[in-house]
Every structure is written in C-alpha cells, then in structure tokens.
Amino acid sequence: MSGVSKPSTMRLMAWVGKFEVSMLVDLGSSHNFINANIVRKIGLRGAAIEPFDVNVANGRKLKCEEVVCEVKMNVR
Q: InterPro entries recorded for this chain (predicted)?
C-alpha cells in the first residue's frame, strides 16, 4: 500500500495472463475499471457500450466506452 492517499484504498500487484499490472482496490467504489491502454497491451477484447463519465479520485472525469467481461487475474 504505497502512494495511496485514501485509507480505504489498497494498491496490489496482479497478473492477467503473463502481464503484471497494478491494481487499486477502493472500498468506496461502485464499479471496477481497467485502463484502456492496458486492455490493448494485454490483448483483452472490449465490447462497446453507451459511453458514460467516471469521476476518479483525483477529481478528473474519464469517459468509459467499453466493457471487458470475465477478466481472470491472480493477485499477489
């Protein structure tokens, strides 16, 4: 748990296939999100959805445009 400003957030390392990724677990979040660049790098397939805005911890808004279902990962 390094570099995390909110006490309800944990940073963990996980593997999706052979790719190591950083994962944030936030007890106050209502959904799970994955960075679009990571989706493409790992080779996951996203399905287009009706876009919606997501408010992130630093106050920025990001647009969610795809859903990736059933991502299997191992968490360390």
A: Peptidase_aspartic_dom_sf (IPR021109)
* CA 1 centroid distance within chain: 16
Domain range for 68: 9-75
Split into its structural domains, the chain has a count of 1
Q: Where are the beta strands (DSSP E) in 27-73?
A: 47-55, 61-67
Amino acid at 10: M
Domain membership of residue 26 (yes or no) is: yes
> CA-based diameter of the chain, in Å?
34
Q: pLDDT digit string (tens) for 27-62? A: 777 778 888 888 999 999 999 999 999 887 777 888
pLDDT digits (tens, 9 = 90+) for 60-75: 888 899 999 988 899 9
Please identify which residue in the block is written with the tokens 């009706």.
Answer: 50
* The two structure tokens encoding residue 53: 């805005």
